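sorry to bug you again but im stuck and you know this stuff better than me. theres a chain ive been looking at and ive put its sequence and its fold in token form underneath. id like you to explain what the token line says about the fold, in plain words if possible. anything you notice is useful, everything is just below.
___
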Amino acid sequence: MTDQVNANSYLDTDSSNICEVLQILGAKWAFLVLNELLRGPQRFNQLQRNAAVIKTQSLTDTLRHLEQNGLVLREVFPTVPVTVEYSLTEKGSDFQTALKEMNKWVEKWGKPQQVNGKTSISS
């Protein structure tokens, strides 16, 4: 009985942690934006070109959300016109570890797809 109580306590804590992560990263385009910024700091238009599937307002909302949660740093440079650059904070950069683990999981368990007559794992 004690083991079951300890296991349930662990699961409650674990679920709570996962919910917290999903609130931060559950934004529709959060993963894509973080992945793009792992390549290095980018200005808004460059980021929008690289992540072409994201509409302007959605990218703005996602960047604000990630900035509010401490994953993205927004730097404004006093140029004419003003230059704004986005980069990952240490917290945001650390997400790379999680992305690599998710990629490993997809490589192992992802659904095989036919591409040019060959079977491959979607990623």
Summary: Strands lie at 42-43, 72-77, 83-88, 112-115, 118-121.
